[in-house]
Amino acid sequence: MELDQSIIGLTGPVFTFEVDKRHIRQFAQAIGDDNPLYTDEEYAAKTPYGGIIAPPTFPIVIGSEGEGISLDLDPKRMLHGEQEFLYTRPIKPGDRLVCQMKVTDLFEREGKSGKMQFLVLDTEIKDESGEMVVVSRMNIIYRSIQQHV
Amino acid sequence: MLNFVDLYEGKELEPLVKPAVTKVQLVKYAGASGDFNPLHTDDEFAQSIGMPGVIAHGMLVMGFLGEYVNRLAGETAELTNFRMRFGAITRPGDQISCSGKITSLYEEEGQQFARLELSAEKAPGKVVGSGQASLRFF
């Protein structure tokens, strides 16, 4: 079954994500990123950020936290092709983020082995007053049925 | 750290070579990111779906590029946009090199920006992730 345009605009449930210092530290450590901006309060306070921030790919954690959107998708056909982050400001410890996933686009392209569909899923991450913090955009390739063995 | 005045289009930036990826690192990344797909942590499972063994999370590779770009930005600039297309798989033992180049410099509403092209490779020409970033100078 192919996806159709009617899914554009579908949204998942709104959820809240609380950012804590330990989580930021563990995320940076897993990457092996020892930039003191993510762990050292004293250092970070003297930078233009004014305090600890999260590494740039941290919003991916938030995307995996929500329940997502219940689309009738075959996970075997899905391929995470591209990831993008559109930042308004960095995430900081203590942030209570209000998040929601949305289907923002669906388009087709002719690939080497037939038609492929591309699905764009945005997780909008805002602060409690509704100001945008970052958008985490997943570009998913939805392979056609015949090319998948 | 980048200084806007020293930059020009086409400038190659000093690369970052990461230590080889380890299985323990993949376990740590699974825990920290919440992505517990056993493809990244369980060799038996990975082999059952035709992989030689566990492979790294694609987002770990983007994490390496994120480390690289924020090192470059230092205290002079901040990221406004960052994207990466996933390439070849990364396995434990692979050593990833991050490299970058300035593709454009511009001003918008009185603020200075640089656009960078980024690449993560496990060997020369073997791209595991290719991306772009925009930096706004403070």
From TrEMBL, chain A:
<dbReference type="InterPro" id="IPR029069">
    <property type="entry name" value="HotDog_dom_sf"/>
</dbReference>
<dbReference type="InterPro" id="IPR039569">
    <property type="entry name" value="FAS1-like_DH_region"/>
</dbReference>
<feature type="domain" description="FAS1-like dehydratase">
    <location>
        <begin position="13"/>
        <end position="134"/>
    </location>
</feature>
<dbReference type="Pfam" id="PF13452">
    <property type="entry name" value="FAS1_DH_region"/>
</dbReference>
<dbReference type="InterPro" id="IPR016709">
    <property type="entry name" value="HadA-like"/>
</dbReference>
<protein>
    <submittedName>
        <fullName>UPF0336 protein</fullName>
    </submittedName>
</protein>
From TrEMBL, chain B:
<protein>
    <submittedName>
        <fullName>MaoC family dehydratase</fullName>
    </submittedName>
</protein>
<feature type="domain" description="MaoC-like">
    <location>
        <begin position="17"/>
        <end position="103"/>
    </location>
</feature>
<dbReference type="Pfam" id="PF01575">
    <property type="entry name" value="MaoC_dehydratas"/>
</dbReference>
<dbReference type="InterPro" id="IPR003965">
    <property type="entry name" value="Fatty_acid_synthase"/>
</dbReference>
<dbReference type="InterPro" id="IPR029069">
    <property type="entry name" value="HotDog_dom_sf"/>
</dbReference>
<dbReference type="InterPro" id="IPR002539">
    <property type="entry name" value="MaoC-like_dom"/>
</dbReference>
